[in-house]
Amino acid sequence: MKVLLFGFVCFFCSAISVAYAAKHSFSKSLRLKEANSSRQILVPAGQGYTFEILQLGEKEAVIKIYDRSGATLMGEYLVSNSIINDAIQKKIEEGLKASTEGAQAEDKDCCNVSDPQDVREEEKAKLVVTVQEKAPVVVKKPEVVVQDKKIPLPEWRPEYKPPEEKEEDPPPRAETYSGSRTGICGVYQKLLRAGVPREPLAQALMFYDQKKGSSLPSARYLAIADLSQRSSKKRFYLLDIKDGRLVSQEKVSHGGGLAKKGSPGDPNHDGMIDRCGESHKGPDGMTRAGFFKVLDFYMSSSGRYNGWPLVVKKPPRNGMRLMGLSPGVNTNALSQGVVMHEAKYNSAAVGTNMGRSHGCPAFAPGKGAPIMQKLRGGSLFYNYAPKCSSDMGKVYKQVAGWQNFCR
After folding, report:
1. 359: DSSP letter
2. What is the DSSP letter of 205?
3. To pair with 389 at 20 to 30 A between CA atoms, which of 34, 111, 145, 368?
4. Phi, psi for 76 (deg, rounded to 5)
5. How far apart are CA 65 and CA 76, in angstroms?
6. In this structure, are residues 187 and 205 in contact, taking their beta carbons and an 8 Å threshold?
7. What are phi and psi of 197, to 5 degrees?
8. pLDDT tens digits, 339-361
9. Total-model pTM
10. pLDDT by residue (tens digit) across 40-82?
């Protein structure tokens, strides 16, 4: 008899394990907080979004969210245990019902298993399964005889395993340009005549000329955001360094910083950057100055709910990752989510200041996608912010002697 009861308990433990590891639907719309930041997202009900439980805590659980196509949204989120309990109980009920119906179809006189009843005492849920014996029946191996007994399901909490990171396709290499020292100076003179500001241009070309072939590919395109200008100006310059041509100019946002801290990056929203962020202190919503390597498109889960238009439709992508190349200034930009993107809050910024971003170079809808297409795959981007003197002092050391570039 003890062996039979042990086998029965194991059966229901297995049911809980399957329910825990399964993907669950959202029965109602929820606003969820990201586990490792203050960022929040709104998950609508009935839109095909599902979640998987990663870790159970005393009051909250950590979950991973999937969209209707099965793709994982970036980040891990917190949800109340009451939501988790409802989802797990639903899965257990479905599994028990399926198992019972299958057993009755094979042998109607085997046994009847009632659905688990929801017996909550305050916030703790304990499921009790009642097994009603009609009569001891011998079935094909293994033999099971169950008597009337209330068996409480044992409390079970799995060991947390970090989610596996999915490898992304390697980014494409940017269109290349192989030039000589004489060639780069010719490009410099052409771009000066086209109206590109001298200081950021000389610094960017000097850095590119030093790093091409090592940390940078010999890319055709290069970009500069001159944050010494007001955001109402077209201060983002896309340059063709093969032909020495100014391809386009666009307006671009700078980071305002966290609103709860007074938006220290641009507190009066006058279109001029006042402070940059400190890379080693974690996300602060402010601009990172210095040199960056442009990587490839990606899909931001937070951007999806914060008004980032798609810049690529198939597969859907709404941002472009950046890797910092200025130690102590933007070293952690990639891990802190500093990216290029378009933003709906810049839609009305015609002749006026752009909106303040959370530290990203953000364009008006429809303006950023053509730029990103040319820069993707390893091009150099220079965020020139002379107002951030402490950070820029470190950047200037990377291009020591730039004042004599091509003279």
Report:
1. S
2. H
3. 368
4. -120, 145
5. 8
6. yes
7. -60, 135
8. 999 999 898 755 689 999 999 99
9. 0.58
10. 888 888 777 888 887 777 788 888 888 777 777 777 888 887 8
